[in-house]
Amino acid sequence: MTAAIIDGKAAAAALRQRIGARVGELAKQGVTPGLAVVLVGENPASQVYVRSKAKQTVEAGMRSFEHKLPADTSEQDLLALVGRLNADEAVDGILVQLPLPAQINAELVLEAIDPRKDVDGFHPVNAGRLASGAPSLVPCTPLGCLMLLRDLKGDLAGLEAVVIGRSNIVGKPMAALLTAESCTVTIAHSKTRDLPAVCRRADILVAAVGRPGMVTGDWVKPGAIVLDVGINRVSAPELGEGKTRIVGDVDFASCAAVAGAITPVPGGVGPMTIACLLANTLTAACMRRGLPKPVL
Ligand SMILES: NC(=O)C1=CN([C@@H]2O[C@H](COP(=O)(O)OP(=O)(O)OC[C@H]3O[C@@H](n4cnc5c(N)ncnc54)[C@H](OP(=O)(O)O)[C@@H]3O)[C@@H](O)[C@H]2O)C=CC1
Ligand SMILES: Nc1nc(=O)c2c([nH]1)NC[C@@H]1CN(c3ccc(C(=O)N[C@@H](CCC(=O)O)C(=O)O)cc3)C=[N+]21
After folding, report:
1. What does the record give as its pathway (predicted)?
2. Mean pLDDT of 36-51
């Protein structure tokens, strides 16, 4: 079998189009959603993401507020900024780019964000709501994965899902969403015994590990859907001296020969993450004003 390649870039563009249309309707009611992105330090990869978030926010008709702070910013100063953004009526969504420098306790900062403006869905209130099945702001990467799965498959009830990775930002919320879709969910991690055998049970296999090319074709059940969340920068001497490229956690060639459908890296889950950030900003803007949650 040769897998269908899931075009995350196209799906994200289509989602942004729908968001833009809804933002246009809100504008007639005098509402313009606003997203504040906070970047501490000069991590070059983070700078690229923050720039593309800001650009796409504006293209969707929303307001973008960028806050760039020096790498030696104190925890207290960052908490003060979050406090001001919480109080700012023009700001509907707040994203503090991770990772944060060592002198700052990230947990404390994420908990300081007003849960109604928590467009990353990382606040414990939103994590708790997701776990209990209550309406919440859902982390962007798992939300993007779920949208791709629904596009592909419609009803997911009864399917076997295996999520490799148990982080609070990807693995755990992904498993919670798949559970809510009535999948039978297994969460695998670094202590899992015989990971290849666990993965071979999966109709839906999500890799969120951070290890380039770890999942190989012999781990994949024929016809399965493989979602590759991994973003790993590796050296690429074939592109020239000192060049790098990004690869996923999935060995694309061997897995595509077995899977039914597979996301590439780049162009798979990554673009959906950013589009879902815009979707969450729109959702937050509506919910905060007592307007119905947009159906995107
Ligand atoms: N596409 C996108 O939009 C996004 C991509 N990412 C990417 O996704 C990947 C995962 O991110 P994140 O969840 O933050 O990473 P974390 O490092 O927080 O979590 C990694 C998880 O993988 C598990 N793991 C590590 N090694 C193995 C192994 N050998 N076998 C099985 N499991 C293993 C860890 O297990 P344990 O808990 O036991 O340590 C952990 O649960 C990264 O490549 C990251 O860059 C992240 C966010 C967004
Ligand atoms: N508070 C916070 N929220 C996040 O959501 C968050 C974060 N911090 N820190 C870093 C990770 C990583 N992340 C990505 C988003 C988009 C792509 C993406 O669009 N990737 C493109 C291209 C990437 C490239 O070419 O470099 C692709 O996969 O096609 C990747 C990774 C969000 N994260």
Report:
1. One-carbon metabolism; tetrahydrofolate interconversion
2. 92
Comma-separated ranges of CATH 3.40.50.10860 domains in the chain:
29-114
Spell out the residues 6+ positions from residue 133 whose beta carbon is closer than 8 angstroms to its own. Answer: 180
Fold adopted by 140-270: Rossmann fold (3.40.50)
The verdict on whether residue 231 carries a ligand-binding annotation is yes
Ligand 1 pocket, 209 CB below 6 A?
yes
User: Which ligand has its closest atom nearest to the C-alpha of 168?
Assistant: 1
C-alpha separations of 73 from 42, 54, 81, 108 in Å: 12, 22, 11, 15
Reference 223, options 183, 182, 256, 268; nearest CA is: 256
Q: Which amino acid is located at 95 in the chain?
A: L
pTM for the model? 0.98
- pLDDT, one tens digit per residue, over 59-105 is 999 999 999 999 999 999 999 999 999 999 999 999 999 999 999 99
Nearest partner of 121 among 269, 113, 133, judged by Cα: 113
Fold of 29-114: Rossmann fold (3.40.50)
Ligand 1 center–CA 139 separation, angstroms = 15
Residues 289 and 94: their CA atoms lie apart, in Å, by: 16
pLDDT digits (tens, 9 = 90+) for 108-155: 999 999 999 999 999 999 999 999 999 999 999 999 999 999 999 999
